[in-house]
Design goal:
Layout (H helix, E strand, L loop, with lengths): L6 H19 L2 E8 L3 H7 L5 E7 L4 H12 L8 H6 L2 E4 L17 E5 L8 H5 L3 H18 L8 H4 L10 H5 L4 H5 L3 H10 L10 H14 L1
Parallel strand pairs: 1-4
Antiparallel strand pairs: 1-2, 3-4
Helix pairs in contact: 6-10, 10-11
């Protein structure tokens, strides 16, 4: 059939076939990438709300997707070496909160979070829309932060109040709850900062979570 067709028809047919082959060979997948909302990530990039849909060739890995996202995000980070700061972020699956390896293959429809700490399973929006359980989890942190802001120590139990200190004055060790370093490392950054400030310490110049934990332990001994 192709032989008996006019040369122009043959050319158009072959061109169509070539386009179809290229389209099959270069199948694309779309991945949604966002920068995390946790405080440690904010202290790394000093910006929130960065997100983009990244189209990559099928078969590309997570590291490739991350680098393409950094290409789009770095100009929005308000300081020099923005790309280097973004590259220190880890990659998490938004749905599960699990960290992904650089070599994992990107899948169509994936939603990734770049951050220092894992996102809540289901993402930040789902966590914010959660019912009374989320509200109850946030309340102690807000109370501690409020106490730190107004210079009042958190309330303690009656047994702690009998240690010889004045009413309403809690020893730093009580405020820390006798937590070990490992337990403190599992706390959110904002709660660590509140513990430091509530004990009369300062978080100035502290960037890494480990530094905040060291400062918490330092102020608890000082008190």
């Amino acid at each position: 059939w192709l032989k008996v067709c006019a040369p122009q028809t043959q050319h158009r047919f072959l061109l169509h076939v070539a386009v179809c082959i290229v389209a099959v060979e270069r199948a694309m997948v779309r991945v949604h990438v966002a920068v995390g909302d946790d405080e440690a990530t904010f202290l790394t990039v000093f910006v929130k709300g960065l997100e983009a849909d990244i189209d990559v060739d099928d078969g590309k890995n997570i590291e490739f997707v991350k680098n393409r996202a950094i290409d789009q995000f770095w100009s929005a980070v308000p300081f020099c070496h923005a790309a280097a700061a973004l590259s220190t972020l880890r990659v998490f699956d938004e749905a599960t909160g699990d960290e992904l390896a650089d070599g994992d293959v990107a899948q169509e429809g994936m939603r990734l979070v770049l951050g220092q700490e894992p996102p809540p399973p289901g993402g930040y929006a789902a966590a914010a829309a959660a019912s009374g359980e989320a509200d109850g989890a946030v309340a102690p942190t807000l109370a501690t932060a409020s106490a730190a802001r107004f210079g009042k120590a958190p309330c303690v139990s009656a047994s702690a109040a009998t240690t010889g200190r004045g009413k309403g004055e809690a020893p730093a060790s009580a405020a820390m709850g006798g937590r070990s370093r490992e337990e403190l490392l599992r706390l959110p950054v904002r709660e660590l900062r509140a513990l430091v400030e509530g004990a009369g310490g300062s978080c100035t110049g502290l960037v890494e979570k480990a530094e905040l934990v060291d400062r918490v332990l330092e102020v608890s001994v000082a008190r």
